[in-house]
Amino acid sequence: MNFADIRFWGILAVSLLAILMIRVVVVKVIRPDPGHYDRAALAIMGLVLLGCVSLLSLGIFAAVSVTTYLGLHFILKIDSSLKRRGRWLWLLIPLQLSPLLFYKYGGFLGNEILGLKSHSFTNVIIPVGISFYTFQLISFAVDTLKRSQPLPSPLNTLNFAGFFPQIVAGPIERREALLPQLEKFRFRWDKKAIEIGLTWIILGLFFKRCLADNLALTPLVHSGTNPFLVWLDTLMFGFRIYFDFCGYSLMALGVAYCLGIKLTLNFRSPYCSSNIADFWRRWHVTLSTWFRDYVYFPLGGSRVGFWAANLLIVFVISGIWHGAGWNFLIWGGLHGLFLLVYRLPVKVSLPRVAAFLLTHVCVFLAWLCFYETDTGELFRKLGLLLNPASYDGFALRAFFSACLSPNGLDIFGILGMIACVISLEMWSLRKRGEPYRFLRTRGAAVILIFLTVVLSPISNNDFIYFAF
Prior knowledge:
This protein has 18 helices and no strands. It is mainly alpha-helical. Helix 2 crosses helix 6 and helix 8 (191-217) runs antiparallel to helix 9 (227-258).
């Protein structure tokens, strides 16, 4: 479900029209419960849209969803003890995780960990959204068993697991936040909700098509020997992944809002953060809180003496969640170390600007570990960036020469636009305390539509997080 692809909107429009037409006939002839019809139609539409992306993705989603529901139904039926029900999770969660482990980590576990050097996983395609809906269903299973919550109907469970705006790239919603809304779902024309939803969709499309896609299609001079160019490449990637992933999340939020469903705002202007802890309160919010509630707290959180180890474990797992590679593990470990340093008892008070700059140097340094998949090249570039002697006059002259090239001028034009966007994000937080507020006014929407139409590249890239 690529929200930046016109085909998605065409399929969605046709699906909604078909639902409306069938509804008129069905209600007159069969006279079912209108709410039940709407929920069934929503579920079918979600399955159709996922099937249009990939039949493999549809099949794996169905397998994980059915395994979760039947597993919970079986456990609740045979075991009435709340304490013993929790132990069943040791069996159910591995079953839920098995497709994810096979498709996403099979090659890495076999070749890198076990040293098999097998080519069996070379052409394995990762089903879209598998990391997101698997984690959402794991939290659903934990909450159902450990909090003694009733098992919803199969239809409501299917809608919770497969609500189409967020199934392929989040946000990872909780049972208590999303399920009650879906249980009362109706297709309604709510003008105010649609207006609000459209502002999120417009902003998300601008982030994706105008900023992220242009960053992806306008490379500078990729260099492993010039530290200034490595920093620039890393800066471009860090902004690209933000505007790409945030753009999808905002569009998912907007589509859901038009349907009367409120999703979690998954990004809250993370590049406005002045410390690393605040960055993680604003970046991929639902994943961060998922790891906090279902990994960090069960390990003991900060209440135990080995809290530092718990923190590192969480971030290493978070890194592995993003991809099967040593670079992702290093990326997670680095962020864990940054947070440990931030939480040291000895505090160093920095001016706000210095704290802001230090935070972003750490964040963008870690982004190098995210996109550089060759471990040897990664360590060489990290050594280059951390070596003061590499920042010599020759490297600086080569950097300016690259910046004055046609591609370089294009890049700095995009970076200038990004600086304006980040400034508006900061202004929204300071003046209104609401992320993206001044980017969602009617006047801003008109400007963003114009910029998106004029500046969007012809080619259309998939969202980065579809690979996760």
